[in-house]
Amino acid sequence: MKYEIKSFGNVNGQNYDEIYIYHEDIMISFSNLGARINRWQITHSNGTSEKLIVSNQDANQAFENKERFFGASVGRVAGRIGKAKFDLNDHIYQLEKNENDNHLHGGHHPYDLSLWEYQVIETEHKISVAFTYIDPDGNNGYPGTIQNKVIHSYDADHVWTVEYFAESDKDTVFNPTNHVYFNLNGHYQESIANHHIQVSASHYVPVRADGLPVGRIDSVDNTPFDLREGVGFGQVLNADHPQVVLKSGFDHPFVFDAKQEERIVVSLVEKQRQLTVKTDCPCVVIYTVNLPDSIIWADGEQVSSHGAFTLETQHLPNAMNEEGFGDVTLKAGQKYYSQTSYHLTY
C-alpha cells in the first residue's frame, strides 16, 4: 500500500488537500475539506477506471454540490431537526433554519464545508488519515465546544473504515454520519435498479414530504421497506406504497435489528461486486437520489435520478424531539465513539 497527497484546489484563498491511497487495483481518496471520502475506484490494466462512489472533481465542485454532501462527514447532528430547536436540560436551543422551517445536517457552518487538520498514519496492512476539527460553542446555535476526530482507514483486505471520536465541554447533542453515495456499476449515469440490497432491519421510520420523521417507528412487514431477505432496488423504487411515492424512492431511516453483525449487504451480480457494511450505529438512512428533474454534475459525470444510494449510519434523525427515538445527548466530558466499515469484494 502507498499514498500521496495532491491539491484538491483553492476556494476563497483556502487551499485543500486530497490524500490518495493505492492498493492493488484500487484507489481511494480522502480530503481535509469536510473530512470526506472523495473517490473509490477500480483501475483496470488498460488504464480505464470505474467509480464506486460519487466524487467531486475538486474543492470548487464540492462547494457547488454542497447541498448533496458527497462523501462528507456530516455534523454536529445529521438529518433534520424539526423547527430547528430542541430542549436540553430545560433550556430551548434555537438553531439556524437552513431548510425551510427545519435545521439540516449541522446548519450553515457545518462539518462538511470546514477545513480539518490531518495526519497520515501508515502501517504494514493499513493506511489511515486522522482528521481533527474544533467545533466552537454556539456555532450554528449548538451549546458546547466539541473536539472532533474522524479517522478514515483503508486496509489490505479492501475495507474502508470510518471512526468518529468527540468530546464536549458542555452538555450538547451529537449525531454525526458520513454521506457517501454508492453505485457499483462503475459510473452514476446508470441506475442502481440492478443492485440487490439486504438490510437487517425489521423497522423503518416513515417521513413527511419535507423529509422530517412523522414521529413513529413502523414495522417493515408487507412493505417495500422489508429488505431483510434481500431485494433488487428495481423492485422497490417504483412501488406504489405511499411512502415510496411520496419521496419517489427511499429517503428513510431503517432501524437495525440488535444481534446482526453484518447490517447491510449490497451486491451487483453482473459484475461480481459486493459491499458489506458493519456498524455500531443503531440505524441507517438510505437515500436513492430521487431527483427526476434535476441535473447534478460530479467529477465529469451527470448523476441521474436513482443513480446512487447513500448508507448514512447514525442515530435516528430528530431524536431529541421524538419520544422513543433514542438519546443523542453528549454529556460534558463524555467520550463519543462510533465505527462503520465497508468491505468491498470484487
TrEMBL record:
<dbReference type="Pfam" id="PF01263">
    <property type="entry name" value="Aldose_epim"/>
</dbReference>
<keyword id="KW-0119">Carbohydrate metabolism</keyword>
<comment type="pathway">
    <text>Carbohydrate metabolism; hexose metabolism.</text>
</comment>
<dbReference type="InterPro" id="IPR047215">
    <property type="entry name" value="Galactose_mutarotase-like"/>
</dbReference>
<dbReference type="InterPro" id="IPR011013">
    <property type="entry name" value="Gal_mutarotase_sf_dom"/>
</dbReference>
<dbReference type="InterPro" id="IPR018052">
    <property type="entry name" value="Ald1_epimerase_CS"/>
</dbReference>
<dbReference type="InterPro" id="IPR015443">
    <property type="entry name" value="Aldose_1-epimerase"/>
</dbReference>
<dbReference type="InterPro" id="IPR008183">
    <property type="entry name" value="Aldose_1/G6P_1-epimerase"/>
</dbReference>
<dbReference type="InterPro" id="IPR014718">
    <property type="entry name" value="GH-type_carb-bd"/>
</dbReference>
<comment type="similarity">
    <text>Belongs to the aldose epimerase family.</text>
</comment>
<protein>
    <recommendedName>
        <fullName>Aldose 1-epimerase</fullName>
        <ecNumber>5.1.3.3</ecNumber>
    </recommendedName>
</protein>
<keyword id="KW-0413">Isomerase</keyword>
